[in-house]
Known about the structure:
It contains eleven helices and ten strands. By secondary structure, it is of the alpha+beta class.
Amino acid sequence: MKRQLYSADHEAFRATVRTFLEKEVLPHYEQWEKDGIVSREAWRAAGRQGLLGLAVDEEYGGGGTPDFRYASVLAEEFTRAGTPGLAIGLHNDIIGPYLTSLGTEEQKRRWLPGFCSGETITAIAMTEPGAGSDLQGIRTTAEDHGDHWILNGSKTFISNGILADLVVVVARTTPEGGAHGLSLLVVERGAEGFERGRNLDKIGQKAQDTAELFFHDVRVPKENLLGELNGAFVHLMTNLAQERMAIAVAGIAAAEHLLEITTAYVKEREAFGRPLSRLQHIRFEIAEMATECAVTRTFVDRCIVEHSDPDGAGLDAVHASMAKWWATELQKRVADRCLQLHGGYGYMSEFPVARAYTDGRIQTIYGGTTEIMKEIIGRSLLG
């Protein structure tokens, strides 16, 4: 079915993204995976190409368009290219809204130009060794010392953790406040007492630096408080819908691409003297996955439209949770089935299906696990 949500401008932007991937990312990606990190030059190249800060006002160097469909195009093309290491979606879709919606004028002028040029790489630090989806379990603390905060604690599984120049840290500023005693503090590269641990060795997304972060009596200026004091819980909940939509967009794009390359493979690969595609079981497998992808695509596209409506309230948390868990679980199932259809070749790292299998496994975990998504949906229906 022909998709209806993209205009000629969006498709022109898609061509730009593909050219950027071909010139600036794909030739270097194998080396980045060996290094466990992408080059900073790639971020600067993305900035020069206008891929960073799409929703940031032009006066700060951004694209000036809040239309989420451009972010969707980026997510789709990076997913199809198999290049999750350059975490532009994290930078643009997850961290960007905190800076643009919560930042003071002084903060915007200080941080956003570098954010858009690629000189300033960002990360958000929520997860701790003992606290993931449960914000009430956060133990990182920030004590008020007049004109500054003293930050202590540790974070883990932080994407862009090694490269990040700005880290939005979720910290407890009111001990007795529970989830409502948390604030967002921005820690800048070079702050005394701010240390990065090892670049974590993951099963997939090898080029994407993921680190432990440690804060030992880090002095954070009061002007680096982002948003309201003790307001982090509300701020985080407000922006989670877009984060989950970005993950859902990547999820269905990955499933569709895996189906595409596997369909081509079974037409060429022979067994028992004829192509695999001539076997009824193979045809049924492809038919089932194609139908699941088509149905999921229709729902996700509707969610994108809803979230992109300039006159609407944006996509609500419940439907974003539906899109996230369904699309990512579909991605996981399709990756497994497509690898199986590739046989032994599917287990070889040089085959795209193998890399997609390991790179995509995190999708049902970060941004809120499938189980958390179902809890959000169930609670909305049952109280």
